[in-house]
Design brief:
By secondary structure, this protein is mainly α. The chain is built from twelve helices and no strands. Helix 2 packs across helix 3, helix 5 packs across helix 6 and helix 6 packs across helix 10.
């Protein structure tokens, strides 16, 4: 066999193995992210049980929004890799994986581990999940840990009667607001007016025709003036509404920025406490990721195997 052909076959084989490894890793990481997202939402709601009704409501809102954002990210990654077949591929993977882990299927583990982490000696499903977390989910884990650490610190400050801003402001205190696109009032006014130009009738030779043309011209002129007057009123009203909306938006932004500054000031003073909360949740998330399939699939998807696969896919898609 010619060297060029051998090199081509070797390249194709290597590419296929790398692609298979990438997709298996993506599927397992998506499953872990989904379970961890579910667990995080559950933990946030649990924190709300020991606080005031107002704080519990804020926690519930943040938990739901955060969960939907993470699920949207998982969906985007799966659709990008598998297109329209993403729901079926993910469902089948979760079904096979949860069934194998529940039976401690060594053959399945060895085959999956060989494709995902061939350089590592994986001896258990928990170790495989921890390896995936280490290789692919570091950023996701950091987001979860920071979220929970900051929520716990916020609750602790509120319980100390510290005047803290609303939870969504507290969590977004370091985010910068994007610049608002300037309003082109002239363009808006032109769009509102949109007046058709007067169309003059051709002169006719008959006196009656000339009279009718003049009369129609007068009526047209009156109509144009009325339309112009209405357009002017509409333009002025829109300008007033835009100015009022801009004033309210500026006031709301100034208020939010003021609360963010206060939040940053409090956070700076409580830096060590927040860090301790994050470190504590870092240890907890290691246990969450390493949890058995019975502690995740059974709880969140109502079973394992095909049931877990169908429920997981329905939740994402």
């Amino acid at each position: 066999m010619r060297p060029a052909i051998v090199a081509l076959l070797l390249m194709l084989t290597t590419s296929a193995i790398a692609s298979e490894q990438q997709y298996d890793s993506l599927l397992l990481s998506a499953y872990i992210r989904l379970c961890t997202t579910q667990t995080t939402e559950q933990r946030i709601h649990a924190l709300g049980k020991d606080t005031s009704a107002m704080n519990a409501s804020q926690l519930s809102t943040v938990a739901s929004q955060w969960k939907q954002e993470r699920i949207s990210e998982i969906r985007t990654d799966l659709v990008k890799a598998y297109g329209e077949s993403a729901p079926q591929v993910f469902s089948e993977f979760v079904a096979g994986y949860t069934d194998a882990e529940s039976k401690n299927d060594a053959a399945y583990l060895a085959e999956l581990s060989a494709r995902i982490s061939p350089e590592q000696k994986i001896t258990g499903y928990s170790q495989l999940r921890e390896q995936i977390a280490k290789d692919s989910l570091r950023e996701f884990s950091d987001v979860c840990i920071k979220l929970m650490g900051n929520i716990e610190a916020w609750i602790e400050l509120a319980q100390k009667d510290t005047v803290v801003p609303p939870l969504h402001i507290w969590l977004s205190r370091d985010k910068q607001e994007g610049k608002q696109k300037p309003v082109n009032r002239l363009r808006n006014a032109e769009a509102v007016a949109d007046i058709d130009p007067a169309v003059l009738e051709k002169k006719t030779e008959s006196v009656l025709a000339q009279f009718e043309a003049a009369n129609e011209k007068r009526n047209k002129s009156k109509l144009d003036r009325a339309k112009a007057s209405m357009a002017q009123l509409a333009t002025e009203r829109k300008q007033y509404e835009d100015a009022y909306a801009q004033k309210m938006l500026s006031a709301a932004k100034a208020d939010a920025e003021g609360m963010k500054r206060q939040a940053r000031k409090i956070a700076d003073a409580e830096k060590e406490a927040i860090k301790q909360h994050e470190n504590s949740w870092g240890m907890k998330f290691k246990r969450i990721i390493g949890a058995t399939v019975g502690a995740t699939a059974d709880v969140f998807f109502g079973g394992i195997g095909a049931r877990a696969g169908a429920e997981a896919a329905d939740l994402i898609f």
